[in-house]
Specification:
By secondary structure, the chain is of the alpha/beta class. Helices cover about 40% and strands about 10% of the residues. It has 17 helices and 15 strands. The chain binds 2-acetamido-2-deoxy-beta-D-glucopyranose. 2-acetamido-2-deoxy-beta-D-glucopyranose binds near residues 59, 60 and 89. It comes from Sphenostylis stenocarpa. GO terms for molecular function: glycosyltransferase activity.
């Protein structure tokens, strides 16, 4: 069969050369015939988009990054971003909250991650999707950064405002349905996106696209640049190197020395990181290893402030209301992550931890033991599990939980939307054409955040799923007392 087909490919160069000629003609046409567009702010004439003069004349320097995965990951990346922006003295572009599975990174320990450029592209595409589906909500509308901002430890700008100012195009235009407008709009947005994502790499004075990721780099910060360039203690092992032919070597790099004052990146209007996700692995930080052992007072205060970035008051108040009006007794919180990813395989261990805690509580205390449950296991699937047993054992246990459609949750969402925590400079209606295209913004789903708030108030203790970043965040809230802030 294959030998019969072979003759077809005897002159493979003919179609290829035709293609090359066509492309060259197209290229010549674009360069010599088409005049420079006066309208598009990002020059579309050349292959590489350029910064608008408007972006270049802004005195201010900006930084953005590409968040990924679930909310708790996004929150920890946001904290790292705040630190980086503080160190580099750049205004942080505040992203929206991404859908849980919209953007994935891969695995740093396995040296298998998406390139920073590609992850920035996915984030941009997802941002457009969020705008179009009227679900865009800034992380600053959920997480209270007002005290960070008012202490001027860091300057921030909402991504939507940044895009308006820096690209001269409103993200709201993604909602345009008018077919005549649509193509020019989507072209403008695409150009803005490719510039922000660094599709064409760094562009002088305009954007510096960080290409280092956790396969090659661990960011550090020391006043004297100490340790810059040193090998990190975690390297791919021989087996991995041979199996995957990985040439990666992980070096510790001082973020200020590499990207701050006096660096090549300094003059760029926008600094674009990939993900800023980090975690400890084999005693080493995977990507960001910055701690507060510094003399610089500003830096120390900044690190102190980001230990806990609390939820906005509307969320904490709703959590407290549920505790006071519905539970009305000392209670235990159990956070059971049972379905997602790796957690599927540890259901037994997760339930075991809860059982042990409950046994000791029911021996010690008055009955029934009050328990608040937050879990990704849908309510209908509780029968036959430990959760079903708890509910039927009415003598010993009283179980509480929240659902997405509960009045309390919806009311908090309405209040939150009207509170306008988004750190906006331009109002929605200030879009470049002066018209609001994205009508009827949907209410955000606050269930996960209010559940965390409830758990932070649980006076009988907290049982979380080991390895879950949600559990870690709840522990943080309990330790640093977001409850004491209200
Ligand atoms: C930080 O940036 C701001 C605004 O661009 C500037 O006014 C200020 O002097 C900078 N501070 C330092 C220490 O470079």
């Amino acid at each position: 069969m294959f030998s019969k087909r072979k003759p077809l490919y005897r002159f493979p160069l003919i179609p290829v050369s035709v293609l090359v000629i066509c492309l060259s003609l197209l290229f010549l046409y674009q360069n010599y015939v088409k005049p420079d567009s006066q309208f598009s702010r990002l020059s579309s004439a050349s292959h590489t988009p350029q910064c608008s003069s408007q972006a270049l004349t802004l005195g201010e320097k900006f930084m953005w990054y590409a968040p990924h995965s679930g909310f708790s990951n996004q929150l920890s990346e946001f904290k790292n971003a705040v630190v980086m922006a503080g160190i580099l003295n750049r205004t942080l572009v505040v992203p929206p909250i991404l859908d849980h599975h919209a953007v994935a990174l891969g695995s740093c320990p396995k040296f298998r991650v998406v390139d920073p450029k590609d992850i920035r592209i996915s984030v941009w595409d997802h941002v457009i999707e969020l705008v179009q589906s009227r679900r865009y909500i800034s992380i600053a509308e959920i997480i209270d950064i007002s005290s960070l901002v008012s202490s001027s430890l860091v300057r921030v700008i909402d991504l939507r405002d940044f895009v308006s100012i820096w690209c001269g195009v409103s993200l709201e235009l993604a909602c345009v349905t008018d077919t005549k407008l649509q193509s020019s709009v989507s072209e403008n947005l695409k150009q803005c996106g490719s510039l922000l994502a660094g599709v064409h790499g760094s562009i002088e004075k305009c954007i510096y696209a960080v290409n280092e990721d956790c396969r090659t780099t661990v960011w550090t910060y020391h006043e004297d640049g100490n340790g810059d360039g040193m090998l990190d203690s975690f390297q791919p092992d021989e087996q991995l190197k041979q199996k995957k032919k990985i040439p990666f070597i992980r070096r510790r790099k001082d973020v200020f020395k590499t990207l701050g004052h006096g660096s090549e990146a300094e003059s760029a209007s926008l600094l674009a990181f990939g993900t800023l996700f980090s975690a400890t692995y084999k005693g080493s930080e995977l990507y960001v290893d910055i701690h507060e052992s510094h003399q610089n007072q500003r830096f120390v205060s900044l690190m102190e402030k980001i230990k806990l970035l609390p939820f906005v008051p509307e969320i904490l108040v709703a959590g407290k209301e549920f505790v006071k009006q519905t539970i009305r007794a000392p209670f235990l919180c159990a956070q059971l992550r049972l379905l997602d990813g790796q957690f599927k395989n540890h259901q037994k261990a997760t339930f075991q931890g809860l059982k042990q805690k409950l046994e000791s509580l029911s021996k010690e205390g008055p009955l029934p033991v009050h328990i608040f449950i937050m879990t990704d296991l849908p309510r209908d699937n509780w029968p036959g599990t430990c959760l079903g047993d708890l509910i039927s054992d009415k003598h010993n246990y009283k179980v509480y939980f929240l659902r997405e459609n509960d009045k309390l949750i919806r009311r908090a969402a309405v209040k939150l939307m009207s509170a306008g925590h988004g750190q906006r400079f331009l109002s929605n209606s200030d879009s470049t054409i002066g018209k609001k295209y994205c009508s009827s913004q949907r209410l955000p789903d606050l269930l996960l955040y209010i559940e965390q708030a409830v758990c932070s108030y649980a006076s009988l203790g907290f049982v979380g799923t080991s390895g879950s970043t949600i559990a870690e965040n709840i522990e943080l809230m309990r330790k640093f007392g977001s409850s004491s802030q209200q």
